[in-house]
Amino acid sequence: MVGRLFLLHAGVLMLQASILVSGQLNSPPRLKPGSETYFQVSEGAAIGEVLFSLRATDSDAGDVLTFSALTDETRSLVDLGTPVKGSDGVWSCELLLKTQLDRDQGLDTRKLFFEVSDKSAQVSIYIMMIITDINDNPPTFLGLPYKTSIPEDFEVGKDFFTVSARDPDMGNGGSVEYTFETNRREFKETFDIHPYLGHIALNRSLDYEQRSFYHLKVSATDLGDQRCPGATCLCNASTTQCDGEPVDLFITVEDVQDTPPEFERLLNMYYVPENRNVGDAILQVQAVDGDRGVDVPNQIRYSFTTNNPNPFSIDEISGTISVKERLDAADPRSTGGLYILAVTATEVSPTGSSAPADIDPSRSTSQTNVSIIVTDVDDHAPQFNHLTYSANVLENTPSGAPLTVSPTIEVSDKDQGENSRFRISVKRNGVPYNGFTTLPGEGQIIQGSSRVTITVGDTTELDYETENVIAFQLVLTEEHANEDAHLPSRPPATATVVLNLSDANDNSPTFPPSQPRSFSVSEDLAPGEVIGTVTAQDADSGDFGNVTFNLEMDGHEEEFNISSEGVIRLAKTLDREVRSAYSLVVIATDSPSSPASQQRTSRLPITANVLDVNDLDPQWTLVIPVVSVQESALPDTKITDLIAVDRDQGLNGEIEYSIAPGTNGSTLFVVRKIDGRAELSVGSSLVGHSGLLVVKVKATDKGASPRTSEAEVTVLVIDENQFTPVFTNPDEGQYNVSTGELPEIIVDEEEPINTVLMQFKATDRDQGVNGEINYFLVPSLNKDFEFFMVDRETGYLRAARRLDREAKESYEIQVKAEDLGQPAARASILTMRVRLRDIDDHTPTFASQVMPLTMSVQEENNSANIGVVEASDADSELSNRGVCYYLFGGDFLSRLKLNKDTGNLSLKEKINRETTQLFDVVIKASPRCNLDPLTFVTPEDLADSASTATGGRSTSSSLATPPEAYNASDASLLWVRVTVLDVNDNPPQFSHQTLSTGILFDVPRDTEIMNLAVSSGNSQTLLARKLMIMK
Predict the structure, then answer these.
(1) Mean pLDDT of successive 10-residue segments in the chain (1031 residues)?
(2) Residue 485: its pLDDT value, please?
């Protein structure tokens, strides 16, 4: 009887035996060692997402593995992908999510069962799927709705309510934070919520009378990832975090006895006539308990707050205010009849007892002010403060001028308001008098009291020669507000005003109509000469009628003076060119012995016109001292403008222009007067007159005695640019460009940038700047000019870019020699060729070869040829392209031979394919052919050569990586991979010397137990058989 052999490994129960089926030995699939027995997946994973990969191997060549789910639960959760065999022989099958996961509503682990089969044997696999949590549920409030009440005297800082929310997520996603959702500062300052416990506490005192109800919004937010991934997310997709919906919290404030009484609305002011009787009720104040939310309000008691004396009393129970004594609007205890009464309302218990002594009075009493005005009745007549007034008045006092009256006039009526209204009027001998008026005026109503000012009305009444004393009366008449009232008839009040007149200087000097208003004076008149006389008269007598004269200078510096008798003289020398006229004012003043304040004056404007004389030379205002003109300029060509001015008047200021003789340019130029300016032009040909020419232009006025002035102008006659530059190096006359014969220079390639390659030279027969030459490179379509640069002044040609003969052998450039001539430059262009001389600046490379280069050689052949390698050299000249080849590294260097001249690679010693299927060789290409053939052989290759010499065997290098000596960045190295070809030189052999297996006791006949394989030492298998159960 044969027993069973099992092994539980990595969650897989496997039969550790090969079975012989149909004469062949078959091995069952095996779970890949190191595979996990569980995997984790987020509950937010999307359907179709790859969760895990099953991996298994089968040692039987050619077997195809299949994967399948064993249970319904497994099939409901995952789909199996298509099995794929990797390059390493391992089969893998992806598990894809089939059903959306939700850890919060189901299990957080699931057992998955699978089977792996190669059609002959099956293996069961058990794997645990662990579902991890994501934050996909918002918090949910419990115990809704939220309503509570709190007395207004609740202690600050204590909790009075608790909210609670639940979140089924794990970790931070299931931890809840509570907040108020409100922008109202009052709510945030009144209440506080514990962020994690949900306890709501009072932050500051409540006041039922201010607010009796609060409506808050409470939010619960979990502390998990604010993003809400996965298809199971219950959050609102429009929000940025997984928050629960805010809920309402209603808080009702309960009233307590803590508010003082409140007065009902009172009038701003109460009016009481002063003739009201004692005991009359005036008004009633009323107050109510300020705590309106209590069931039984307190009673109210009334009193006056202070003991200030007043003519009123208040009833303690009803709050009625009555007249306590006779009223008087003028009572000094009032302010103009106004009484402000402070009334106190005090709460007492409903039974009538006072508030306890420990109660804060501010919570049981209130105060208000009641304003009562005692109004007046008409019981007084208006009156003056004196019966007689006097004043001194000048006869020339103007109308409207106020008089200084002694004593001051004051009028008043002791009644108040409308009862104190009256008017004032002016009368003389019982009839109205308009010689004087009053302020307030006769038409104005005076109320209460006023100061009265007397002003002049009709100035004709003030005539000292007619009447020097004037007396008149002021009368006060009552103005009753109510004409229908039966008031006692009272006579008007009267006062007398006496005015004493004084004589005055009331006439001003006058100028006769025949008085001249202008005078003329020549600018060369000597100081002290008389230019005119003025006269005036004054109608006043005595000193008031005497007149003197002086001048008011209008911004002048005393060029004129006047005597007291009116004679005007010149005080300073005049200059008409500075000022042609003077505006003077003659002032006539009377009463010279009186103070200035009592004098009267008159003003007479006069004009002094200054007559011109020819006393100034013309002055040049525009002269350009140096000008230029081309020698080819034609006659009448304008050169410049000159301007001279003469500030004299008339012909004395008119100017003519001419050219003064005696200069080297006086005969070559002409001058014309155009629009007041002198236009200097070419008079005759300037050819042959280049250089500096001096011209003097003369300006002459037209005065009786003409005056002149000269201006000197230097004219630079400019030489013309007539010759074109000619190249002398290279000499352009030695080459025929039209036949392709160009000047040429040969330079080495790779000359450093900015190296001088040659110097261009050119000559110009012109003089000065016309003969100075600059050099330029001319841009061309072939862009050869971009590789060079030329010094503008010296003509040095330099390299501007790298010159590489392998890229371009020659360049054609155009050089321009251009003079600095004026007005137009002249230039010559030279085309030349720059040819590059090759230098040995490149090394041999295998850059075009795809690595590795593959070759083959037959085994067991001591001198077999492997192949030929070839490198390239970019240098142009054959002498610079020499290449030699050397073994640089790799395998079996001691068995190889490389011809350094031809690159032929061959064996010096045979190689066995059964031990070495392939090997690598690194070959170095070098321009140096004088090196020893073993210069580049590595120490490892030397050691290998030594082991070979002593009979040891070497192994080939890795098939997947280049040899250590190969550097991909070095293009002079070639990686050669040599495949060893097989020959039939080995007998067959069993793959194992000892074979064993295990089988079940009741295995049926023809069941495969194992495979028997026989192979030769060569590359192919010769025989394969199956061992089977017969009987």
Answers:
(1) 34 42 67 73 88 87 88 92 89 91 83 90 89 85 92 90 89 87 85 92 88 90 68 51 78 82 80 86 85 78 84 89 86 81 84 57 81 81 92 87 92 83 91 92 88 90 80 89 64 92 82 90 88 88 85 75 90 86 90 88 90 87 88 88 89 89 88 90 82 90 89 86 88 80 88 92 83 92 92 94 88 92 86 88 84 90 88 78 88 89 90 89 89 54 36 40 89 92 77 64 68 60 54 52
(2) 55
Q: Is the peptide bond before 382 cis (omega within 30 degrees of 0)?
A: no
How far is residue 12's CA from residue 219's CA, in Å, rounded to a whole number? Answer: 51
How far is 630 from 637, CA to CA, in rounded Å? Answer: 10
How many CA atoms lie within 13 Å of 919's alpha carbon, on the beta-carbon side?
26
Q: What is the DSSP string of 945-959?
A: HHHHHTT----PPPS
Residue 499's pLDDT is 92
Rounded Cα distance, 194 and 159, in Å: 10
Q: Contact at 8 Å (CB) between 968 and 918?
A: no
Q: How far apart are CA 280 and CA 22, in angstroms?
A: 140
* Euclidean distance between CA atoms 427 and 439, whole angstroms: 15
3-state secondary structure 848-899: CCCCCEEEEEECCCCCCEEEECCCECCCCCHHHCCCEEEEEEECCHHHEEEC
**Angstrom distances, CA of residue 567 to CA of 571, 609, 690:** 12, 17, 69
**pTM for the structure as a whole:** 0.33
User: In the prediction, which pLDDT does 978 show?
Assistant: 92
Residues in Cβ contact with 520 at an 8 Å cutoff, skipping those fewer than 6 apart: 608, 609, 611
Amino acid at 291: D
Q: How far is CA 838 from CA 751, 753, 808, 914, in A?
A: 11, 17, 11, 52
Q: Which of 811, 841, 649, 817 is nearest to 742 (CA)?
A: 811
Tokens encoding 470: 């004037």
Question: Which burial class, exposed, middle or buried, applies to 95 when counting CB atoms under 10 A from its CB (0-12, 13-18, 19+)?
Answer: buried
Beta-carbon contacts of 353 under 8 Å, excluding residues fewer than 6 positions away, are none
Task: Answer positive or negative: Cα dihedral of 412, 416, 417, 420.
Answer: negative
Pairing assessment for the beta strands 78-80 and 66-69 based on DSSP bridges? unpaired
CA-based end-to-end distance of the chain? 13
Strands 446-447 and 421-428: antiparallel
3-state secondary structure of 687: coil
| Separation between Cα atoms, residue 232 and residue 244, nearest integer Å | 16
Question: Is residue 166 within 8 Å of residue 138, measured between CB atoms?
Answer: no
> Which amino acid does the sequence have at 546?
N
* CA pair distance 683, 666, nearest whole angstrom: 9
